[in-house]
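Retro notes (design track)

What went well: tokenization of the new backbones is finally stable.
What didn't: we kept losing track of which sequence belonged to which structure.
Fix going forward: every design gets posted as structure first, then sequence, in one message. First example under the new rule, 103 residues:
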């Protein structure tokens, strides 16, 4: 006897799982103010701060929150630092790992 067709499924899953999907920029406190500070910061300090510590000269492309907003960091410019993409990604990964192991 024929089996019933499977129930209709929602759209196929995306290529990547959503485990590391981040909230929208707005809900993370980003917005016009962030863009303004980012532009100022990268203009005033166009090199990655972490690279500079080890004597490398790398263009910064990210205005990073030194203390993440999710950990109570402020949106003030004093809480921003210019980072290159690899340093920003590494910091983000460290923060995500720290967040997962928090009690
Ligand atoms: Zn760097």
């Amino acid at each position: 006897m024929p089996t019933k067709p499977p129930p209709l499924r929602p759209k196929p899953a995306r290529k990547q799982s959503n485990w590391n999907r981040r909230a929208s920029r707005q809900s993370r406190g980003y917005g016009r103010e962030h863009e303004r500070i980012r532009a100022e910061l990268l203009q005033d300090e166009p090199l990655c701060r972490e690279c500079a510590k080890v004597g490398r000269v790398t263009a910064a492309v990210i205005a990073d929150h030194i203390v993440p907003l999710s950990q109570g960091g402020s949106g003030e410019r004093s809480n921003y630092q210019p980072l290159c993409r690899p340093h920003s990604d590494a910091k983000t990964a460290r923060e995500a790992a720290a967040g997962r192991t928090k009690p």
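Added context from the reviewer: Strands lie at 62-65, 80-83.
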